[in-house]
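Below sits my pick:
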Amino acid sequence: MLQALGLGPAEEAVYTALLSRPTASAQDLVRQIGLEEAETTRILLDLTTRGLVAVSTEAGSGVSDPADCAAGSRPARYRLTPPSVALAPILVEQRNALHRAETAFSMLTEQYRSTAAHPAGSVVEVVVGVDQVAHRFHQLQRGAQRELLVFLVGAPTAVARDEADVSESSALDRGVDFRVVAAKDYLDGPDMARDVKAGIAAGIEVRLADSLPLKMVVSDRERAMVPLDMTDAGGEPSAIVVHRSGLLTALVHLFEKEWAEARPLYVTTTDVRAQPTTDQRPTEGELEVLALLLAGISDRRAASQLGLSIRTVERRTRRLMDLAGADSRLQLGWHAARAGWL
Protein backbone atom coordinates (compact mmCIF):
# COMPACT_ATOMS: atom_id res chain seq x y z
CA MET A 1 0.00 0.00 0.00
CA LEU A 2 2.81 2.42 0.89
CA GLN A 3 5.09 1.47 -2.00
CA ALA A 4 3.32 4.15 -4.05
CA LEU A 5 4.72 6.66 -1.53
CA GLY A 6 8.27 5.43 -1.94
CA LEU A 7 8.52 2.75 0.76
CA GLY A 8 9.88 -0.67 -0.14
CA PRO A 9 8.26 -3.88 1.16
CA ALA A 10 10.60 -4.17 4.16
CA GLU A 11 10.20 -0.48 5.02
CA GLU A 12 6.43 -0.79 4.78
CA ALA A 13 6.50 -3.81 7.11
CA VAL A 14 8.44 -1.86 9.74
CA TYR A 15 6.28 1.24 9.32
CA THR A 16 2.95 -0.60 9.60
CA ALA A 17 4.25 -2.61 12.60
CA LEU A 18 4.80 0.68 14.42
CA LEU A 19 1.20 1.69 13.75
CA SER A 20 -0.03 -0.71 16.42
CA ARG A 21 2.47 0.42 19.06
CA PRO A 22 3.00 3.74 20.88
CA THR A 23 6.76 3.02 20.82
CA ALA A 24 8.92 0.02 19.95
CA SER A 25 12.55 -0.98 19.80
CA ALA A 26 14.18 -2.78 16.92
CA GLN A 27 14.08 -5.99 18.95
CA ASP A 28 10.33 -5.61 19.49
CA LEU A 29 9.75 -5.24 15.76
CA VAL A 30 12.01 -8.18 14.88
CA ARG A 31 9.73 -10.49 16.83
CA GLN A 32 6.69 -9.08 15.04
CA ILE A 33 7.80 -8.87 11.40
CA GLY A 34 10.55 -11.51 11.21
CA LEU A 35 13.38 -9.38 9.77
CA GLU A 36 16.95 -9.54 11.05
CA GLU A 37 17.69 -7.08 13.85
CA ALA A 38 20.47 -5.36 11.91
CA GLU A 39 18.17 -4.87 8.92
CA THR A 40 15.35 -3.60 11.13
CA THR A 41 17.68 -1.14 12.86
CA ARG A 42 18.98 0.12 9.51
CA ILE A 43 15.43 0.68 8.25
CA LEU A 44 14.43 2.52 11.44
CA LEU A 45 17.45 4.83 11.14
CA ASP A 46 16.61 5.49 7.48
CA LEU A 47 12.95 6.22 8.29
CA THR A 48 14.13 8.54 11.07
CA THR A 49 16.36 10.41 8.65
CA ARG A 50 13.42 10.81 6.27
CA GLY A 51 11.21 12.15 9.05
CA LEU A 52 8.71 9.28 8.98
CA VAL A 53 9.81 7.91 12.37
CA ALA A 54 11.16 9.67 15.47
CA VAL A 55 13.16 8.46 18.45
CA SER A 56 10.92 8.32 21.48
CA THR A 57 11.71 10.81 24.22
CA GLU A 58 9.26 9.37 26.73
CA ALA A 59 10.42 9.10 30.31
CA GLY A 60 12.20 5.83 30.85
CA SER A 61 12.95 5.23 27.20
CA GLY A 62 16.61 5.33 28.07
CA VAL A 63 18.01 7.16 25.00
CA SER A 64 17.43 10.31 23.03
CA ASP A 65 19.74 9.43 20.14
CA PRO A 66 19.64 6.11 18.23
CA ALA A 67 23.44 6.25 17.99
CA ASP A 68 23.60 5.70 21.75
CA CYS A 69 22.40 2.14 21.14
CA ALA A 70 25.81 1.28 19.66
CA ALA A 71 27.53 2.66 22.77
CA GLY A 72 25.86 0.16 25.10
CA SER A 73 22.88 2.24 26.27
CA ARG A 74 19.42 0.78 26.45
CA PRO A 75 17.98 0.07 22.97
CA ALA A 76 16.43 3.06 21.27
CA ARG A 77 12.66 3.11 21.05
CA TYR A 78 10.88 4.59 18.06
CA ARG A 79 7.49 6.07 17.35
CA LEU A 80 5.74 7.15 14.17
CA THR A 81 5.67 10.76 13.15
CA PRO A 82 1.97 11.58 12.53
CA PRO A 83 1.26 10.40 8.94
CA SER A 84 -0.62 13.59 8.17
CA VAL A 85 2.62 15.48 8.83
CA ALA A 86 5.19 13.05 7.46
CA LEU A 87 3.47 11.60 4.41
CA ALA A 88 1.55 14.66 3.18
CA PRO A 89 4.62 16.34 1.58
CA ILE A 90 5.49 13.10 -0.24
CA LEU A 91 1.94 12.82 -1.56
CA VAL A 92 1.95 16.46 -2.71
CA GLU A 93 5.25 15.98 -4.53
CA GLN A 94 4.00 12.85 -6.29
CA ARG A 95 0.82 14.66 -7.33
CA ASN A 96 2.93 17.48 -8.74
CA ALA A 97 5.15 14.99 -10.57
CA LEU A 98 2.09 13.27 -12.03
CA HIS A 99 0.70 16.64 -13.15
CA ARG A 100 4.01 17.46 -14.86
CA ALA A 101 4.00 14.05 -16.55
CA GLU A 102 0.40 14.53 -17.76
CA THR A 103 1.30 17.96 -19.15
CA ALA A 104 4.28 16.50 -21.00
CA PHE A 105 2.12 13.65 -22.28
CA SER A 106 -0.50 16.07 -23.64
CA MET A 107 2.17 18.18 -25.36
CA LEU A 108 3.86 15.17 -26.96
CA THR A 109 0.53 13.71 -28.09
CA GLU A 110 -0.57 16.98 -29.64
CA GLN A 111 2.80 17.44 -31.34
CA TYR A 112 2.61 13.91 -32.75
CA ARG A 113 -0.89 14.51 -34.12
CA SER A 114 0.09 17.80 -35.73
CA THR A 115 3.15 16.37 -37.50
CA ALA A 116 2.42 16.14 -41.22
CA ALA A 117 5.71 14.64 -42.37
CA HIS A 118 4.28 11.11 -42.66
CA PRO A 119 0.51 11.49 -43.04
CA ALA A 120 -0.15 7.84 -43.98
CA GLY A 121 1.92 6.47 -41.11
CA SER A 122 0.12 8.70 -38.64
CA VAL A 123 -3.18 6.95 -39.45
CA VAL A 124 -2.11 3.31 -39.75
CA GLU A 125 1.01 1.58 -38.47
CA VAL A 126 1.95 -2.05 -39.00
CA VAL A 127 3.22 -4.11 -36.05
CA VAL A 128 4.97 -7.42 -36.71
CA GLY A 129 6.03 -10.16 -34.31
CA VAL A 130 4.56 -11.76 -31.21
CA ASP A 131 6.34 -9.47 -28.75
CA GLN A 132 5.51 -6.26 -30.61
CA VAL A 133 1.85 -7.20 -31.13
CA ALA A 134 1.46 -8.15 -27.47
CA HIS A 135 3.21 -4.94 -26.40
CA ARG A 136 0.90 -2.69 -28.42
CA PHE A 137 -2.17 -4.66 -27.30
CA HIS A 138 -1.31 -4.07 -23.64
CA GLN A 139 -0.57 -0.41 -24.39
CA LEU A 140 -4.08 0.03 -25.79
CA GLN A 141 -5.79 -1.68 -22.87
CA ARG A 142 -3.68 -0.12 -20.11
CA GLY A 143 -3.88 3.32 -21.69
CA ALA A 144 -7.67 3.36 -21.94
CA GLN A 145 -9.32 5.88 -19.64
CA ARG A 146 -12.97 5.75 -20.69
CA GLU A 147 -13.90 2.84 -22.94
CA LEU A 148 -12.69 -0.42 -24.46
CA LEU A 149 -14.54 -2.12 -27.33
CA VAL A 150 -13.46 -5.66 -28.23
CA PHE A 151 -14.27 -8.32 -30.83
CA LEU A 152 -13.27 -11.86 -29.78
CA VAL A 153 -12.81 -14.34 -32.62
CA GLY A 154 -11.04 -17.70 -32.54
CA ALA A 155 -8.13 -18.67 -30.30
CA PRO A 156 -5.59 -16.10 -29.03
CA THR A 157 -2.39 -16.01 -31.11
CA ALA A 158 -0.06 -13.24 -29.91
CA VAL A 159 -1.48 -12.45 -26.46
CA ALA A 160 -2.05 -15.27 -23.97
CA ARG A 161 -5.35 -15.23 -22.08
CA ASP A 162 -3.74 -14.90 -18.64
CA GLU A 163 -1.77 -11.86 -19.84
CA ALA A 164 -4.91 -10.30 -21.31
CA ASP A 165 -6.72 -10.90 -18.00
CA VAL A 166 -4.20 -8.69 -16.20
CA SER A 167 -4.80 -5.79 -18.61
CA GLU A 168 -8.56 -6.27 -18.36
CA SER A 169 -8.47 -6.21 -14.55
CA SER A 170 -6.38 -3.04 -14.62
CA ALA A 171 -8.89 -1.33 -16.95
CA LEU A 172 -11.87 -2.37 -14.82
CA ASP A 173 -10.14 -1.10 -11.68
CA ARG A 174 -9.84 2.31 -13.36
CA GLY A 175 -13.57 2.35 -14.09
CA VAL A 176 -13.20 1.87 -17.85
CA ASP A 177 -16.43 0.93 -19.66
CA PHE A 178 -15.61 -2.51 -21.11
CA ARG A 179 -17.82 -4.02 -23.83
CA VAL A 180 -17.08 -7.26 -25.67
CA VAL A 181 -18.76 -9.04 -28.58
CA ALA A 182 -17.66 -12.68 -28.86
CA ALA A 183 -18.16 -14.87 -31.91
CA LYS A 184 -20.12 -18.02 -31.14
CA ASP A 185 -17.17 -20.30 -31.95
CA TYR A 186 -14.97 -18.39 -29.49
CA LEU A 187 -16.68 -20.19 -26.61
CA ASP A 188 -15.67 -23.53 -28.11
CA GLY A 189 -12.01 -22.98 -27.17
CA PRO A 190 -10.57 -24.64 -24.05
CA ASP A 191 -11.58 -22.81 -20.85
CA MET A 192 -13.01 -19.90 -22.86
CA ALA A 193 -16.48 -20.25 -21.32
CA ARG A 194 -14.88 -20.13 -17.88
CA ASP A 195 -12.90 -17.00 -18.79
CA VAL A 196 -15.99 -15.29 -20.19
CA LYS A 197 -17.92 -16.17 -17.03
CA ALA A 198 -15.14 -14.65 -14.90
CA GLY A 199 -15.11 -11.53 -17.08
CA ILE A 200 -18.87 -11.01 -16.72
CA ALA A 201 -18.58 -11.44 -12.96
CA ALA A 202 -15.81 -8.81 -12.92
CA GLY A 203 -17.97 -6.26 -14.73
CA ILE A 204 -17.32 -6.75 -18.45
CA GLU A 205 -20.43 -6.54 -20.64
CA VAL A 206 -20.36 -9.47 -23.06
CA ARG A 207 -22.63 -10.26 -25.99
CA LEU A 208 -22.64 -13.19 -28.41
CA ALA A 209 -22.75 -12.99 -32.22
CA ASP A 210 -23.11 -15.87 -34.64
CA SER A 211 -19.99 -14.65 -36.44
CA LEU A 212 -17.70 -11.61 -36.61
CA PRO A 213 -15.60 -10.34 -39.53
CA LEU A 214 -12.40 -9.73 -37.55
CA LYS A 215 -10.68 -9.51 -34.18
CA MET A 216 -10.40 -5.99 -32.82
CA VAL A 217 -9.78 -3.81 -29.78
CA VAL A 218 -10.69 -0.10 -29.72
CA SER A 219 -9.33 2.14 -26.97
CA ASP A 220 -11.22 5.36 -26.09
CA ARG A 221 -12.32 5.61 -29.75
CA GLU A 222 -8.88 7.07 -30.47
CA ARG A 223 -6.92 3.95 -31.43
CA ALA A 224 -7.81 0.48 -32.65
CA MET A 225 -5.84 -2.70 -33.26
CA VAL A 226 -6.78 -5.28 -35.88
CA PRO A 227 -4.75 -8.46 -36.57
CA LEU A 228 -3.53 -9.15 -40.09
CA ASP A 229 -3.36 -12.48 -41.86
CA MET A 230 -0.18 -14.19 -40.63
CA THR A 231 0.74 -15.14 -44.21
CA ASP A 232 1.32 -11.43 -44.89
CA ALA A 233 4.21 -11.42 -42.42
CA GLY A 234 5.88 -14.72 -43.23
CA GLY A 235 3.92 -16.64 -40.61
CA GLU A 236 4.53 -14.18 -37.75
CA PRO A 237 1.55 -12.61 -35.98
CA SER A 238 1.05 -9.06 -37.19
CA ALA A 239 -1.49 -6.30 -36.77
CA ILE A 240 -2.34 -2.75 -37.76
CA VAL A 241 -2.86 0.03 -35.25
CA VAL A 242 -5.38 2.58 -36.53
CA HIS A 243 -5.33 6.12 -35.19
CA ARG A 244 -8.09 8.72 -35.34
CA SER A 245 -9.39 8.79 -38.88
CA GLY A 246 -12.35 7.87 -41.04
CA LEU A 247 -11.17 4.26 -40.88
CA LEU A 248 -11.30 4.28 -37.08
CA THR A 249 -14.80 5.79 -37.20
CA ALA A 250 -15.88 2.95 -39.49
CA LEU A 251 -14.47 0.35 -37.08
CA VAL A 252 -16.33 1.92 -34.15
CA HIS A 253 -19.53 1.97 -36.24
CA LEU A 254 -19.00 -1.71 -37.06
CA PHE A 255 -18.65 -2.53 -33.39
CA GLU A 256 -21.83 -0.64 -32.44
CA LYS A 257 -23.76 -2.39 -35.21
CA GLU A 258 -22.62 -5.85 -34.09
CA TRP A 259 -23.23 -4.92 -30.46
CA ALA A 260 -26.82 -3.90 -31.17
CA GLU A 261 -27.53 -7.18 -32.97
CA ALA A 262 -25.66 -9.51 -30.60
CA ARG A 263 -27.32 -11.37 -27.75
CA PRO A 264 -26.36 -10.52 -24.16
CA LEU A 265 -24.65 -13.29 -22.24
CA TYR A 266 -25.63 -14.09 -18.66
CA VAL A 267 -24.08 -16.35 -16.06
CA THR A 268 -25.71 -19.50 -14.73
CA THR A 269 -24.39 -21.60 -11.87
CA THR A 270 -22.39 -23.77 -14.26
CA ASP A 271 -22.15 -21.95 -17.57
CA VAL A 272 -22.80 -18.81 -19.60
CA ARG A 273 -25.93 -18.50 -21.73
CA ALA A 274 -27.04 -16.16 -24.49
CA GLN A 275 -30.43 -14.52 -24.27
CA PRO A 276 -32.66 -15.23 -27.28
CA THR A 277 -33.22 -12.36 -29.69
CA THR A 278 -36.55 -10.56 -29.53
CA ASP A 279 -37.95 -12.39 -32.57
CA GLN A 280 -37.03 -15.78 -31.11
CA ARG A 281 -40.00 -16.16 -28.81
CA PRO A 282 -42.11 -19.29 -28.42
CA THR A 283 -45.23 -19.62 -30.53
CA GLU A 284 -48.66 -19.90 -28.92
CA GLY A 285 -48.61 -23.67 -29.42
CA GLU A 286 -45.16 -23.96 -27.84
CA LEU A 287 -46.30 -21.92 -24.84
CA GLU A 288 -49.22 -24.32 -24.35
CA VAL A 289 -46.78 -27.22 -24.24
CA LEU A 290 -44.49 -25.27 -21.88
CA ALA A 291 -47.32 -24.54 -19.44
CA LEU A 292 -48.18 -28.25 -19.18
CA LEU A 293 -44.54 -29.28 -18.81
CA LEU A 294 -43.99 -26.80 -16.00
CA ALA A 295 -47.08 -28.20 -14.28
CA GLY A 296 -45.33 -31.58 -14.18
CA ILE A 297 -47.43 -33.25 -16.86
CA SER A 298 -45.71 -35.91 -18.97
CA ASP A 299 -45.23 -35.61 -22.72
CA ARG A 300 -47.85 -38.30 -23.33
CA ARG A 301 -50.52 -36.61 -21.20
CA ALA A 302 -49.67 -33.20 -22.71
CA ALA A 303 -50.11 -34.66 -26.19
CA SER A 304 -53.47 -36.13 -25.17
CA GLN A 305 -54.76 -32.89 -23.62
CA LEU A 306 -53.68 -30.77 -26.57
CA GLY A 307 -54.79 -33.25 -29.22
CA LEU A 308 -51.25 -33.58 -30.60
CA SER A 309 -48.92 -36.44 -31.32
CA ILE A 310 -46.13 -37.19 -28.86
CA ARG A 311 -43.62 -36.41 -31.60
CA THR A 312 -45.10 -32.91 -32.02
CA VAL A 313 -44.87 -32.28 -28.27
CA GLU A 314 -41.26 -33.46 -28.24
CA ARG A 315 -40.43 -31.27 -31.24
CA ARG A 316 -41.97 -28.19 -29.58
CA THR A 317 -40.13 -28.98 -26.34
CA ARG A 318 -36.85 -29.28 -28.23
CA ARG A 319 -37.37 -25.90 -29.88
CA LEU A 320 -38.20 -24.32 -26.51
CA MET A 321 -34.92 -25.63 -25.11
CA ASP A 322 -33.03 -24.35 -28.15
CA LEU A 323 -34.57 -20.89 -27.74
CA ALA A 324 -33.62 -20.87 -24.07
CA GLY A 325 -30.17 -22.33 -24.66
CA ALA A 326 -31.06 -24.96 -22.05
CA ASP A 327 -29.66 -28.45 -21.66
CA SER A 328 -32.39 -29.69 -19.32
CA ARG A 329 -36.04 -29.05 -18.63
CA LEU A 330 -35.09 -27.59 -15.27
CA GLN A 331 -33.00 -24.95 -17.04
CA LEU A 332 -35.87 -24.41 -19.48
CA GLY A 333 -38.22 -23.63 -16.60
CA TRP A 334 -35.70 -21.22 -15.06
CA HIS A 335 -35.22 -19.38 -18.36
CA ALA A 336 -38.96 -19.25 -19.06
CA ALA A 337 -39.52 -17.54 -15.72
CA ARG A 338 -36.59 -15.18 -16.28
CA ALA A 339 -37.68 -14.23 -19.81
CA GLY A 340 -41.34 -13.80 -18.85
CA TRP A 341 -42.63 -16.35 -21.33
CA LEU A 342 -45.56 -17.29 -19.08
